[in-house]
Design goal:
Blueprint: H1 12-36, E1 41-42, E2 51-52, H2 54-70, E3 75-78, E4 82-84, E5 93-101, H3 103-108, E6 114-121, E7 124-132, E8 137-142, E9 145-148, E10 151-152, E11 163-166, H4 177-189, E12 191-193, H5 198-207, E13 212-218, H6 220-232, E14 236-240, E15 250-255, H7 260-270, H8 274-280
Parallel strand pairs: 3-5, 11-12, 11-13
Antiparallel strand pairs: 1-2, 3-4, 5-6, 6-7, 7-8, 8-9, 9-10, 13-15, 14-15
Helix pairs in contact: 1-2, 4-7, 5-6
Length: 287
């Protein structure tokens, strides 16, 4: 007997469109704040280089209200205020919201930040959007269709020198030797950049602006939307462990098809990171 799919009774495309509208409205307000300048403060309970602004919380409140209206009975899990809502008696619809991914860039006047909203139903990633206010670019994906500003994305040909967007080693702590070993391998294999926004890195991999993203310190809201963009572009996304959590940081690697061999090597290397080891014992992505 075939069990009913919770997605069958939901218009996933309409939900992602609602998320994109909310992300764009929040992003437009963020851009106005960005242009005026904003103060940041250290974020409690995280590493010493993590910062937050009043704009983060204000954007999340705006997005939460619009998502709750678009899908009553859904749960919104946000970076700033945690989980809100209940799915009792209905389909398990969850939104993962990062109101500003790249807050440090945002606070310093560096135009590399975005609004990210990912959608899961029954625990499965089904859609999402990443809005980059500084470029006025909206990346969306649903049911395997990747769009940028509502248009299909023409994928570029592979480049002679691949570009890897990597946050290895983790910020705010002394590098582990395994991190430095991986970084050396990446530098030997590719042009490596650190842009400070996991969601934006995933959007760039999906659209061919970069070829791989490697992040050792990510929560569910950092990658819930971007992973769907990457897989819609026939790329690969691997979370360590999987699924990404809203309660403790994990890691991820994403790559375009032509970097499959390097991607597998990076995943293998990251399983040797001591701070990931305990979480991966029962969830080995290579098993």
């Amino acid at each position: 007997m075939t069990l009913p799919d919770e997605r069958d009774d939901l218009d996933v495309t309409a939900l992602v469109e609602a998320a994109a509208r909310a992300a764009r409205r929040a992003g437009e307000k963020l851009l106005a704040t960005f242009e005026r300048g904003v103060d940041a403060r250290a974020k409690a309970g995280t590493h010493t280089h993590d910062v937050v602004t009043d704009a983060d919380a204000a954007a999340e409140v705006m997005i939460r209200a619009e998502l709750a209206e678009a899908c009553p009975g859904s749960v919104v899990v946000g970076e700033e205020a945690g989980a809100d809502g209940s799915v009792e008696g209905g389909p398990d619809v969850r939104w993962y919201v990062d109101p500003i991914d790249g807050t440090h860039n945002f606070s310093r006047g560096v135009p590399l930040f975005c609004v990210s909203v990912g959608l899961t139903i029954g625990g499965e990633p089904v859609g999402g959007c990443v809005y980059e206010p500084a470029r006025d670019e909206m990346y969306t994906a649903v049911r395997g269709l990747l769009l940028r500003n509502g248009r299909s994305v023409e994928q570029p040909s592979p480049r002679a020198v691949p570009m890897v967007l990597s946050d290895v080693p983790r910020p705010g702590t002394a590098p582990d030797p395994a991190e430095l070993e991986l970084l050396a391998e990446l530098v030997a294999a590719a042009d490596v950049r650190r842009i400070g926004s996991a969601a934006l890195a995933l959007a760039y991999v999906a659209t061919g602006r970069a070829d791989m993203a490697v992040t050792p310190d990510a929560y569910a809201w950092d990658c819930a939307a971007g992973r769907v963009l990457v897989t819609a572009a026939e790329g690969t996304f691997v979370a360590l462990p999987d699924p990404p959590s809203a309660h403790r940081p994990g890691a991820f690697v994403a790559w375009r098809p032509e970097l499959a061999a390097l991607g597998a090597e990076v995943v293998e290397a990251m399983t040797r990171f001591p701070y990931l080891g305990g979480w991966l014992k029962d969830d080995n992505p290579l098993a």
